[in-house]
């Protein structure tokens, strides 16, 4: 049986505007004495299933990203830093093009896409993503919704209250057969592309099945100043593996 090539795709293209008036994007802010993105990348580079890890960065931060990776990560030669795109999905397509150009792309190539500002992803979550992406072609990391979800079509009045037992909160990683994801994305109309909120929706629009992977409550996305305090608390407790 041929080996399936698996690539980590770490999305670090955000500017972090919701973090407030900060001098650099949130992925470079420090928690536990290291930039957030470094905590994230460490989880990928120590996993032997990843052929390479591709980091997508704003153009003006590529050199900075390369420098801190060399400073903090011993296996830095396993990581490529390239420019992200205008949108999240454009950024993922840039990663797929990079993999195809430098390492080759076939029907079985897997990408595990992850937010650079989710530093508490676990080995188990990464392993489950790789397993289910190989088996089903696509998977999404989620946790059950704990709050009641309220839908409002006009943003003023309640339109619907879905059954909470069937509602989940999306996290990352989201993992895919890379070639299939790109093929479906290229088939979408410009109108369909405008409603995309994440990569899974590309496949949902075309009816592809996406398997659920169990996430963790602590697999948080660091978005607001409050999240930095939560992250420091999690690191202080050493409760994440």
Tag the structure with descriptive keywords:
single chain; alpha/beta; Spore Coat Polysaccharide Biosynthesis Protein SpsA, Chain A; 7-stranded mixed β-sheet; 35% helix
Concise account of the structure shown:
The protein is of the alpha/beta class. Helix content is 35%, strand content 21%. The protein has one domain: Alpha-Beta Complex (Spore Coat Polysaccharide Biosynthesis Protein SpsA, Chain A), CATH 3.90.550.10.
Order of strands side by side in the largest beta sheet? Answer: 5-4-1-6-8-7-9
Number of strands: 9
Q: How would you state the average pLDDT, rounded?
A: 92
Parts with pLDDT < 50 across at least 5 consecutive residues: none
Radius of gyration over alpha carbons? 18 Å
**Total number of helical segments?**
8
Oligomer: single chain
**CATH C-level:** Alpha Beta
Give the count of structural domains: 1
What fraction of the residues are assigned to beta strands by DSSP? 15-25%
Report the CATH architecture: Alpha-Beta Complex
Q: What share of the residues lie within helices?
A: 25-40%
| CATH fold naming | Spore Coat Polysaccharide Biosynthesis Protein SpsA, Chain A
Order of helices and strands: EEEHEHEHEHEEHHHEH
Question: Main beta sheet: strand number and arrangement?
Answer: 7 strands, mixed
Helix-strand blueprint:
Blueprint: E1 6-11, E2 30-31, E3 34-35, H1 36-45, E4 50-57, H2 62-72, E5 79-83, H3 88-102, E6 110-115, H4 123-136, E7 138-144, E8 168-177, H5 178-187, H6 190-194, H7 199-204, E9 211-214, H8 225-237
Parallel strand pairs: 1-4, 1-6, 4-5, 7-9
Antiparallel strand pairs: 2-3, 6-8, 7-8
């Amino acid at each position: 049986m041929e080996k399936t090539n698996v690539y980590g795709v770490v999305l670090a293209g955000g500017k972090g505007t919701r973090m407030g008036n900060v001098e650099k994007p949130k992925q470079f802010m420090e928690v536990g004495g290291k930039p957030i993105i470094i905590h994230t990348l460490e989880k990928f580079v120590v996993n032997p299933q990843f052929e390479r890890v591709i980091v997508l960065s704003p153009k003006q931060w590529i050199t900075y990203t390369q420098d801190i990776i060399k400073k903090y990560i011993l296996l830095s030669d396993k990581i490529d830093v390239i420019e992200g795109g205008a949108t999240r999905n454009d950024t993922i397509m840039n990663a797929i093009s990079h993999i195809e150009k430098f390492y080759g792309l076939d029907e079985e190539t897997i990408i595990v896409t992850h937010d650079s500002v989710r530093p508490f992803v676990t080995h188990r979550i990464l392993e489950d993503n790789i397993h289910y992406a190989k088996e089903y072609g696509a998977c999404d990391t989620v946790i059950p919704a704990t709050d009641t979800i309220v839908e409002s079509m006009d943003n003023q009045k309640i339109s619907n209250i879905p059954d909470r037992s069937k509602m989940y909160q999306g996290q990352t990683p989201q993992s895919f057969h890379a070639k299939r994801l790109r093929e479906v994305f290229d088939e979408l109309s410009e109108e369909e592309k405008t409603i995309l909120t994440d990569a899974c929706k590309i496949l949902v629009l075309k009816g592809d099945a996406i398997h659920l992977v169990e996430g963790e409550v602590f697999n948080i996305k660091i978005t607001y100043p409050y999240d930095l305090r939560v992250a420091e608390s999690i690191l202080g407790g050493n409760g994440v593996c």
